[in-house]
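Let us practice reading a record.
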Amino acid sequence: MPTYTALQAADPDVYRAVIGEMDRQREGVELIASENYISPAVLETMATVFNNKYSEGYPGRRYYGGQEFTDNVERLAIDRAKQLFDAGHANVQPHAGAPANVAMYFALLEPGDTVMGMDLSHGGHLTHGHPVTYLTKIFKFVRYKMKDVETGEIDYDDMRKVALAEKPKIILAGFSAYPRELNYAKMKAIADEVGAVTVADMAHIAGLIAGKALRNPFHDGFDVITTTTHKTLRGPRGGMILSRTEEMGKKIDKSVFPGFQGGPIMQMVAAKAVAFGEALKPEFREYAKQVVANSKHLAKFFMDHGVKLVTNGTDNHLMLIDCVASWGIGGGEVETLLDSIGITLNKNMIANDTRKPMDPSGVRLGTPAITTRGMKEKDMETLGNFMLTAIQNRSDAAAVKKLHEEVKTFCLRFPVPGITAA
């Protein structure tokens, strides 16, 4: 386990917070679908002296000198990313997923152009055109939804109808709370019909695509993929933009720098290279498959016990529970209750939700982090039982406290990479 002796001596307050968070992660269950644990190698790389170096520009084309080693690690990250995703071009400099999407928009659009993306209430992301974002002041967004909430099928007929009427410049596939797999071929056909560029925001499922557990949008002719590099990909917090062609990639590069952001965060670029190298190994494919297997098993467990899941199952790493339909309580109450026994997930809107975003009807949970810790199908049943027992006994403080101790004992059987010593 890391000691952080320099930090302890320099700033005891921050040191105590770090140790507290380490204990929280070791002793609890992380079911937030967008969170994961990185390897000790990735964790170490994030704290290297690359933090000290400014590297505006791209390998071989920097604005400052002294770039021999920064060029090396960025080229490694680029080459590995292209190999992982069968991409023609990769920009590994975006600081996060949202900036990657913003840079992508400005590379491909003019102000006033139209983008078609998934409705937030049906699983989309804020950067796909939610009115609270500044993007909607610059571009016009139109939305598509599920045709059947019971199955999760997208209404591709309505998508085509809206696309023919609105003529979007981009058709955007991707989501933050959608449990099924999209039909990229159908979306590509609609885009070709209206002359739109196809973009997939795969932030949630990048690791599952890299690990061959889910379909790669490039294989269905998509033009661009944006993503985070953490979540299922198990890299450092950051973003990336992949292009099918070098020509499209050059537009993206100019938009990222100097168009939108300054110097890359080089210790994060180096950590991306390490994570991509890990993802190229056969063990990562086994991990990706196990994430989906665990997710499907947990979803079935819940449904077998009368829990209402949005779309009645999952094809990926996440699921949405309708808490009101299942137990007559809101998602916020379920989140708070499970937090009290050491199980962390997040409240979430469900399709056609009649409740407000801060007090929604559902919760979202996923299996990437617990799979990294080595949990398998049988452990999903243990976790499901913990959750159902807590909800059934939510008025019994003693029972909830006892359950918390049981969760802690269970969790300590599964080491957290980079935190628990081997």
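A brief commentary: DSSP finds 16 helices and 16 strands in the chain.
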